[in-house]
Amino acid sequence: MSSKINKRTFKLEPFMPEKRAEVGAADRSRAGLALIALGVACWPGTPLVGMLTYSAAVTLYLAYVGFAGGLSGILLWPAVILHMILTALLIRASISDKEIKT
Asked: How much is the pTM?
């Protein structure tokens, strides 16, 4: 039975990060950014500001993680690009929302 467990564990090793503590730290940082953005979104006014705050913060954080070399993976840079596009669209929506109100 133990040989089956070892074979399964061995097969999953390429997909598992080497430093689990760093992965936990990255998850905690993203969760902290989400809580800050949630607090901003709960302020009186439009929740668009909270979404913009979160998207911009996560874009900067993921780019920092990628450039610092702490964590990397196949989907890191596509996630950075996706968040950059989302941030740009949210900025555009925020600007057009202000123009409509005035």
From this structure: 0.65
- Single-letter amino acid code for the residue at 21: A
pLDDT in tens, 24-47: 666 777 788 888 878 887 877 778
Q: Is residue 89 within 8 Å of residue 48, measured between CB atoms?
A: no
Other beta carbons within 10 angstroms of residue 26's beta carbon come to 16
Q: Count the neighbouring beta carbons within 10 Å of the beta carbon of residue 39.
A: 11
Q: Do residues 41 and 51 lie in contact, with contact meaning Cβ atoms separated by under 8 Å?
A: yes
**Residue 53's pLDDT is what?**
86
d(CA 60, CA 49): 16
Compute CA 23 distance to the chain's CA centroid, rounded to the nearest angstrom: 12
SS3 84: helix
Q: What would the DSSP string read from start to end of 51-65?
A: HHHHHHHHHHHHHHH
Q: Which helix (H) or strand (E) holds 89?
A: helix 76-101
